[in-house]
Amino acid sequence: MRTEPRRTGHCQLAVASALLPGLVFVACHPSLETSPHCQRRGLVARSVTVDTGFEGAAVEVMRIAGNLVQLCLLPDGGGRHPKPKTETGPSSGGRHPGQWFYFRASELTKGELYQFQLDVSGARAWRSYKGYEVCTSYTGHHWCRCLGTLYDSGARILLWNVTAEASSCFFAYFEPYGLGQLESLLREAADAGAERRTMGRTTDGRSIDALCFPPGLLQTGREPAGEPTVVWITCRQHAAETQASFFAEGVVQSVLSEPLPLSLAIVLVPNMNPDGSARGHTRENAQGVDLNREWRPKADYSQNGRSPEVSAVQAAMLDTGVDVHLDVHGDEAADSAYSYPGLPRFRAPDHVAQLFDELEEELHSRSGGFYMPRPGSGSARTAAFWTGTQFGALSLTLEMPYKDSEPTKACSKSCRRLGSIAVDAIRSLGPRLGRFRRSRTRP
Ligand SMILES: [Zn+2]
After folding, report:
1. Position 215 in a domain
2. Is 6 inside any structural domain?
3. Which of 29, 114, 133, 442 could cysteine-pair with 145, CB 3.0–4.6 Å?
């Protein structure tokens, strides 16, 4: 297995399909249960170890036998998960795992073939693994895809084979984006002139930070010069959707490379759920709450502290007003990026619906097919619904795929690029958004 791209830009993982006659996943080929390396040398096999003792890691080991590693997903907050009763959905009761997994396999022998089997049967979105390829890295920094990842939809087992080129290797559902990377992004943007603002604290005491372009927008009592169109971009309410953090990097790159016009201001929240990110959750915060179901109008969750992340961002939004809101996510089943409006079309004013269409067209034409328009609408408890109703804003939920459609299989590259494209699209719509701004309803 190689982590550095070859001429094709692909990570060339050994599929070794000859060792997998009939793709019988659960009953493993016997050669994998006893290391061929040790058979040849008459050695006692070293046992593969699976490490999850680091930030963002999550998986449960079911069995390790020779070069076969059998795993299953964990629900947010830990604990075992129930099996689904039917083909069409999970059983009632119990906590169901999300899709996120992230671990390091160690004690590998270079040149040996290993097989990893991940039981995804308890997951809500188990259908989404079709066409998906596992992300992998030897260094934890440079990630690529395990070409040849297979999904047995009957047994609901995700399977991949690797021929080790080092003694340890990371595997993840998507390229991880750690809190150290977040801190670097915030610091670099602040050093380049953005305002870094802490809006509140999470249950675990982490800061909920925003970047303001230009500075001053979140300073209480200060009206920004010229009443610019205020664009909010919130990322990663769902902890495992690291695509959104790479999107945030693209936003920062775009704004720093070309200053915004005076008529435009952006408030960027690169990670709304740092607790869930650190704990290796798929969706929830430290208290087991799905943040993007906490935005109901009239509810005051600051009183019970279920979601301090949402309360902090809501308060800051009420200070600045919101003209445009992009809430950025990842979709397990999607093959391309897409978005849906915060308000259903029949509820949105005509000019908002028209601007949504224009923004979609800008994203589609600029992204080279990574973004594809599609119909749909979201829940009434989501962030985009709240900003749509509270401010009359052009609000949307933007989703990015886990299945990278880029030929390079670079995992995060497309997401970062879409962040830059989104800023470019907003710039191009700027004059029209300005007219829209005057129609907003301040609370
Ligand atoms: Zn999401």
Report:
1. yes
2. no
3. 133
